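Sorry to interrupt, but I need a hand with the structure work. Go ahead and set the record down below:
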Amino acid sequence: MTETVATGGKGTKKSKRGLTVERVFTTEGMHPYDEVNWEKRDVVMTNWRDGSINFEQRGVEFPDFWSVNATNIVTNKYFRGAVGSPEREHSLRQLIDRVVRTYVRAGTEYGYFATAADAEIFEHELTWMLLHQVFSFNSPVWFNVGTPSKHQVSACFILSVDDSMESILNWYKEEGLIFKGGSGAGLNLSRIRSSRELLSSGGTASGPVSFMRGADASAGTIKSGGATRRAAKMVVLDVDHPDIEEFIQTKAREEQKIKVLRDAGFDMDLSGADINSVQYQNANNSVRVSDEFMRAVESGADFGLRARLTGEVLERVDAKKLFRSMAQAAWECADPGLQYDDTINDWHTCPESGRITASNPCSEYLHLDNSSCNLASLNLLKFLGDDGVFDARLFVKAVEFVITAMDISICFADFPTEAIGDTTRRFRQLGIGYANLGALLMATGHAYDSDGGRALAAAITSLMTATSYRRSAELAGIVGAYDGYARNAEPHQRVMRKHAAANDEIRTYHANDVMVRDLATKEWKRGIELGTKSGWRNAQASVIAPTGTIGFMMDCDTTGIEPDFSLVKFKKLVGGGSMQIVNQTVPRALTVLGYQGEQVEAIVEHIAQHGHVVDAPGLRPEHQDVFDCAVGERSIAPMGHVRMMAAVQPFVSGAISKTVNMPESATVEDVEQIYFQGWKLGLKALAIYRDNCKVGQPLSTAKKGTEQPEEKVVEYRPVRKRLPKKRPSQTLSFTVGGAEGYLHAGSYPDDGLGEIFVKLGKQGSTLAGVMDAFSMSISVGLQYGIPLEFYVSKFANLRFEPAGMTDDPDIRIATSVLDYLFRRLALDYLPYETRTQLGIFTAEERSAQVEAGYGAPTENVDLEALRSTVEADTDRVSSSDKPKAAHSTAELMDLHLGKAADAPLCMTCGTKMRPAGSCYACEGCGATSGCS
C-alpha cells in the first residue's frame, strides 16, 4: 500500500515529504525473483514463408509460467546488447532490473520517497508486478531506459506546423526523427493556407494536401526504428478548411488507382513492389468536425469554409453532402476517420495554454501541440478472483504504483525535439490504460455488447482514472503541480467535476459494478478535494491504447478495449511446435454461467472443432452472446463497438484507440450512421474499416497480381475427343479444412468424365489462377484418353494445406483439396471394382464392410488399403483436427471461417497480424503497424 506522509506545498521540509510505501504484492524478507521458478529456453524465430531464421538466442531465462510467445517477443524486442556478445541481456531479471532501478534512482533523486526503505519497497513492488505480468510500460521504456541510448520513454507525439515554408520543412525533419526512433506522430495541417488563398508575394498557395505528398514520400522512405515497419502518422484537417473536399478524397482516389494497377497485373499488396507508385499510404487521415458542422448535418443546413488567415467564409457548402463524402470515402478505403473537436476541447484540462488540435497516429493521445505521452497498461484479468469478483481495492493499489512510476519517468526522459521536451515537462501528460477488458467481461459472464458489460467497463475505467488523478494530486503536494496548472486551475477542476458527475450516472447491474463504481465515487471525491488544495501533478492521466506488443508481453487474450478476437487461439509450445487451443477464458465463463464439468468439456470441444459456439451442445441460447467475438460466426455488430466506446469515454483523459469493423455488405448510409452516432454519444474520435474495402491489404492466402502459368502445347499421337457443345454436368460445393470451393464436372453424353473446373480462392488470386490452370490441364488429359483412375492414384492422399474436416459424409477427412476432389470424382465416376483397388469407398460401403469384418464376403477388396483408410479417418475424427497451415490466431480464424480476412502480413516474420486498437500487432514477433 502507498500513502503520502504529507501533502504540503513546496515549502514543506524534505524530512516530511515523500511517499511512504507499504507492501501489497510482495513479502518482506523475500525478493520477488525468489518466489518463482526460472527455466532456460531457446528462442528461435523464423519466417515461415521461406524458413529463414529472423532471430536466434539460446539459453534465455524466464519464469516457467511465461508463455513461449511472450518469451520470444520480449527476447527479440526488448533485450539489449548485440546478440552473441557478453553485453547481451539473457534473462528477464536483467531487463526488469535495468528499467525498475532507473525509475527508483530517479524517484529517490527527485524526492518522491520518504525514506530509502520506501524506495526499496517500491522497487520490489514494481518488480513483482512486471514479473507477474500485472502491467507493462510502453515499448520505448523497454527499448531505452537504463541503456546508453537516450531515455526516450514516450510512444505518442503530436507535432505542430504553421503557414510558412520554414515550419513545413521543419515538420518533415521532426517527423523523420520520430519515425527513425520507432515511434509515431500526428499533426493538424489546418493553419496552412488553402489552394484558394493568395500568397503575400503573389500567386496562389499550394494548400496542405500538396505538402502531404512530400511528407508521405518521406515517411515511406524512413523505416521506423531502422526496421521494415513503415512509419505511423496521423494527418488531421479541420472541416471548415477550404481544401477539405480534396483532403477527404486523397486516399479514396488512390485506392481507385490501386485497383486499376492491380487489374493490370502490378503487385499492389501493402509490401508489394509497385505500391510505392501510389501516394498518401503512410498516414491515417482524420477530419476535425465541429458541433456547428454536425448540427448543420442534422438540420440539413449550409456550412461555411473559411480562409485560414482572415477567417472569412470563402464558400458555403451543403453540410449533408460534405458529410456523405466523408462516409463514402471511408466506405471505399477506411479514411478519413472523424475527430469531434468540441467534445475533445470540452474535456481539455489546459485550454488556457492552447486548444487540442491533433492526436497521435492511433488517436488515443489528445493534447497540446508539440507534446508527448508515455503509456502503461494494466492487465485487468489479474484482478479477477476465482470467485468472479473484481478486486477493486487491489486495482487501486496497482494504479498508484504505476502512475507514480510513470510520472517519475518524465524527470529523466529525453525527447526528440526541444519543443516536445519543454511541453511535456511543463504538463507531464501520462497515459495509463488497460488490456484484457474483453477477456474480463467474458470471464465474468458478460456479453461485450450488453448493458452489464458496459457498466463494468465504465466503472473500472472510472476507478482507474479517478485513482490516477488522486495519486497525481498527492504527488503535487509532494513534488509540485505541473507548471501549467496555475494558469489552468479552473478548467482543470471543471474537467475533474465532469468526470465525477459522469461516474454518478453509471447505471449498475451486478455486485461487481456496484462495488467498483462506489469505490470510484470515493476516489473522485478524495482526488478533487486534494487537487483543489495542491493542484495536480499531471495535466492528463489516462488513455486507452492499442497495447499490441506489450499485450503479448503480458500474455493477454485481448488488447486495449477490444473484445475477444476469437475463441480459438494459436499457441506456441516449449521445445518447438504449436497447437490450437480454446481460450482459457471460455471454460472460466461457462463455469460462472453455471455449467457443470461435462457440459463445459462438450462445449469447449465444439468450439475447438468449429471456432464458434453456434449449435454447441447444451449451451443455452441466452448465453451465446457472452462468447461473441470481433470476427467469426457470431461477430459483434458495429454499433456494439461504438456503444462500448461511449460507455468508457467519459472516464478517459484522452481518447480510445479502436477501429469499428464493419462487414463488407455495409452501406455508405451505415457508415454515416456510425459517424453520426459517435458524435451523439460523446466520443472524441472514431474510425471504421469495412471488410475487403482495400485492395492493397495483403491476405494470408496468396499474393495477388501473379499471372497464370502459360499452358504448354504438346502434341500426342492420341486424338483429342472434345466434348459436345451441350453436355451433362454436375456442380458440387465442398469444404476442406474450412476452405470453401466448387467442383464442376462435365461428362460425355455416352458417360465418362471429360472435364473439371475447380473454383477455390478469390477471383484474381494466385490460388484461383493455379486451380484454373490445373483444371484445364486435367480436362485436356481426360479428353486425350488418360484414365481417371490414373489421376486418382496420383492425387489421392496428397498432403498439403488446407486439409482437415470436410462437409462430405462419404469423405469426412481430406489430406488436401486435391485428395478430396479426386476421391470424390472416383466415387462419382469410377465403378466399384476399380475403387476397391484404390481403397476408396462410400460411407455406406465402408460401414457394411467393417460390419462384415473388413470385406469378408466381398470380392477383390484391398484389405490393407481399406483398413488404413478407416483407421486414418477414425484417428483424424477423434482428434480436434487442428489446422496445420496456421501460424497465428488470425490465420487460424481464417481456416475456421473458410475465408481470408483483411489484415496485413507481418513484414518481419510473415504471419498474419491481428487488430490491436486502430493498429495491427503480430503475435509471432511482436511487431506493430502503429506506435507502440
User: Anything to note?
Assistant: The chain has four domains: 2-153+358-551, 160-351, 564-635, 729-878. The mean pLDDT is 86. The domain at 160-351 is CATH 3.20.70.20 (Anaerobic Ribonucleotide-triphosphate Reductase Large Chain).
